[in-house]
């Protein structure tokens, strides 16, 4: 049976996932709690990714080595960079670049040394499934967000985007920083702190990987405002609904 690794960036999100797993068992490895069980008939290992590239890479490696995960999915939040990528939208990654990788002049900027590439692609089939599940969830308006929440975060008619996600060990929270990222990586739709690291690990192990991120902020001077509340009231609901829809559409194998 396929084993699906679910890496969540947020406690609330993981708690919601665990509530859906009737038989989860905790296994501790590398100082992390891995939750092994089933969700909608699928064999699943769920874990908090932790924050930043190294922590997420360790978590991914343990999932692959110790738990023999053969499909990897990441859910969390990200800062929107692309024009039209708004708070409350969902970005499904088509590929990942480490925006803070720079071994120039030995290698081109952003190229990961000895890989001959800057961009690690998400698995196309898996990404298409997540994009479909995201669209179904957003259009069905089954998230039950209160009017007050929608107004506070100015979420209206949320959309699903697919494209480049960039990662680095920095929470981007100034207009100047996000503008600088747009200049060097104009195709980037969103910025976060883990995806490109997990993509590189999954590339090494030849395991399909895809990621879905809810846009929590615009990576600008306002990025930190009500961040935790957004995660609690909006993003964790999105993640649960999207993953649940994705698993419902997927045949257990
Ligand atoms: N995750 C969510 N928002 C982010 C931001 N602005 N920068 C980096 N990671 C993020």
Helix/strand/pairing category: alpha/beta
Strand proportion, as a percent range, falls in 25-35%
Overall shape: it is: globular
Number of strands: 10
What report would you give on this structure?
It is a single chain. The protein has 253 residues and is of the alpha/beta class. It has a domain at 76-249: 3-Layer(aba) Sandwich (Rossmann fold). The chain contains seven helices and ten strands. It has helices spanning 11-19, 53-66, 124-140, 147-152, 175-184, 195-205, 227-249; strands spanning 3-8, 25-29, 32-39, 42-48, 71-80, 90-98, 119-121, 160-167, 188-192, 209-217. It has a five-stranded mixed barrel. Strand 8 (160-167), helix 5 and strand 9 form a beta-alpha-beta unit. Helix 1 packs parallel to helix 7, helix 2 (53-66) runs parallel beside helix 6 (195-205) and helix 3 packs across helix 7 (227-249). It is globular and about 50 Å long. The model has no long low-confidence stretch (mean pLDDT 93). Bound molecules: adenine (ADE).
Produce a short descriptive summary.
The chain has 7 helices and 10 strands.
How are the secondary structure elements laid out?
Layout: E1 3-8, H1 11-19, E2 25-29, E3 32-39, E4 42-48, H2 53-66, E5 71-80, E6 90-98, E7 119-121, H3 124-140, H4 147-152, E8 160-167, H5 175-184, E9 188-192, H6 195-205, E10 209-217, H7 227-249
Parallel strand pairs: 1-4, 1-5, 5-10, 6-8, 8-9
Antiparallel strand pairs: 2-3, 3-4, 5-9, 6-7, 6-10
Helix pairs in contact: 1-7, 2-6, 3-7
The structure holds adenine.
Adenine (ADE) binds next to strand 5, strand 9 and strand 10.
């Amino acid at each position: 049976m396929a084993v699906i690794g679910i890496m969540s960036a947020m406690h609330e999100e993981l708690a919601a996932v665990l509530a859906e797993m009737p038989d989860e068992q905790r296994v501790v490895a590398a100082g992390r709690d891995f939750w092994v069980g089933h969700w909608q008939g699928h064999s699943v290992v769920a874990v908090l990714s932790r924050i930043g590239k190294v922590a997420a890479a360790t978590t991914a490696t343990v999932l692959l080595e110790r738990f023999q995960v053969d499909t990897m999915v990441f859910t969390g939040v990200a800062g929107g960079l692309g024009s039209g990528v708004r708070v409350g939208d969902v970005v499904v990654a088509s590929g990942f670049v480490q925006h803070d990788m720079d071994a120039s002049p030995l290698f081109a900027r952003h190229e990961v040394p000895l890989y001959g590439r800057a961009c690690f692609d998400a698995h196309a089939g898996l990404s298409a499934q997540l994009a479909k599940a995201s669209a179904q969830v957003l259009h069905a308006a089954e998230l039950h967000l209160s009017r007050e929440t929608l107004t506070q975060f100015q979420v209206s008619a949320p959309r699903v985007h697919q494209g480049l996600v960039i990662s680095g060990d920095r929470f981007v929270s100034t207009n100047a920083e996000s503008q600088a990222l747009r200049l060097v990586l104009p195709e980037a739709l969103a910025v976060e702190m883990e995806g490109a690291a997990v993509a590189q690990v999954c590339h090494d192990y030849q395991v399909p990987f895809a990621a879905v991120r809810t846009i929590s902020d615009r990576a600008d001077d306002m990025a930190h405002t009500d961040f935790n509340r957004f995660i609690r009231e909006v993003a964790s609901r999105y993640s649960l609904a999207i993953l649940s829809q994705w698993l419902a559409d997927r045949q257990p194998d």
